[in-house]
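Dock zinc ion; give full complex structure.
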Amino acid sequence: MASIAEPVANLIREFSKLPGIGPKSAQRLVYHLLRNPDEEAKALAEAVLTLKEKIKLCSVCFNITDCDPCLICQDTERDHSKICVVEKPADIPPLERTGKYQGVYQVLHGAINPSQGVEPGELKMNELVSRLQDGSVAEVILATNPNLEGETTALYLRQIISPLGIRVSRLARGLPFGAELEYADDVTLTQALESRREF
Ligand SMILES: [Zn+2]
């Protein structure tokens, strides 16, 4: 990109690193910012900076939040006797969009993957088990991804949680094997949630 001014080429490179953005889209975004008022570019830059400054993990469920506990954990209208276990923070918005889940969450921040060196101890599993100690939780819904790592993680968690006398369920098979929760559509996810089965 020698013919392109370095600041332009630089931002194109940075945008290209984002998921779903190829070099052409990156270029379109950069020229869009150049054409539009300075304020627009400043607002974008500030939003990016604030994101990393203000966002932390909820000390209860480990979802990303700007207040602690997060809004979901704080919400007394929600059913705190149900905990839905997901792999990553991005899995929560699609489940919330279904409007069918009123319980709370636990974010593991990954799934068991021995080939990548991800062992149970590196995930927020002990923290989950601590939450189950006071007897207030009646059901844990395992919503890890329907792929090898997600299944391994679900089986592992079942072994730990079932002996505590807590109901363990798993999202139904409506989700195709190998799929990722983050990208599941509302209808499929609602069905998977509503026909969750004992696990
Ligand atoms: Zn929380």
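Observed: The chain has a mean pLDDT of 91.
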